[in-house]
Amino acid sequence: MQGWIRANKGFLLFLTLFGIFRTAVADWNPIPSASMHPNLLEGDVVLVNRLAYNVKLPLTDIVLGHTGEPQRGDIVTFSSPQDGTRLIKRVIAVPGDRVEMRDEQLIINGQPSSYALLGDGRETVGAAGTLRTVQLRETMAAGAAAPHAIQLLPQVNARRNFAPVTVPPDQYMMLGDNRDNSADSRYIGLVPRALLIGRAVRVLASADIQGNWHPRTERFGMDLYGPQ
Asked: CATH no. for residue 69?
């Protein structure tokens, strides 16, 4: 064993440094589902800044200190409070916010979000088959996040309403941009800060994994916070 270690010490050092980089500095996250349509597609691989909110002990989830505060509109990766699965959603409400949803409209601290029609399309949703989609530009309360696109599926039975909730300290409400096809805080509950992994920054690469696997080069390097 000692001989094998000596012979492969360069490779072992690379693996160690690679592990430190991925768990403490930056990571990449493949998109496996439709929950963030229309902004993220299955087959996208996004760059995640792990230093956006916390500094963690390398190769662990132990938080050593905070580097920033999640903001409304941030796209973040986190461990599900329900089962630990890694998810990617958008921060909708931060500690102290009072948020509710009425017929898909978000109301944050008493200020209704506004919506502008972007277009419509089609999406295949499991056994339901191909359904009509409606894409909107959502502008949350003044002074919150920049406008971003969301998608609705009018034919899906989804949670389009919830009563006012005041977000407790160190917790966050997360919603998918594909509002009627996302297992988010409406189903898994609020997300504690300790479960945050990092802030998604841009698309590194993309391929049409549901079609011909051709690269979608127009998405390479795409800023997730660019004009909507």
From this structure: 2.10.109.10
Read out DSSP for 14-40? HHHHHHHHHHHTEEEEE--SSTTTTTS
Asked whether residue 28 is assigned to any structural domain, the reply reads yes
- Residue 20 structural domain: 1-223
Residue 72 covered by a domain: yes
Is 228 within a domain?
no
Q: What is the chain's alpha carbon radius of gyration, rounded to the nearest angstrom?
A: 19
The residue from 35, 113, 182, 185 that is catalytic is 35
Angstrom distance (rounded) from CA 172 to CA 150: 19
Q: Which residues have a Cβ under 8 Å from the Cβ of 211 and sit 6 or more positions away?
A: none
DSSP string, 140-166: -STTSPPPEEEEE-TTS-----EEEEE
- Count: domains in the chain: 1
56 carries an active-site annotation: no
Q: What is the pLDDT along the chain (228 residues), one digit of tens a residue?
A: 666 556 555 544 444 544 554 555 568 889 989 999 999 999 999 999 988 998 877 767 778 888 899 999 999 999 999 999 999 999 999 999 999 999 999 999 999 999 999 999 999 888 888 999 999 999 987 566 789 999 999 999 999 999 999 999 999 999 999 999 999 999 999 999 999 999 999 999 999 988 888 999 999 999 999 765
Q: Is 35 a catalytic residue?
A: yes
Residue in 56, 89, 113, 206 annotated catalytic: 89
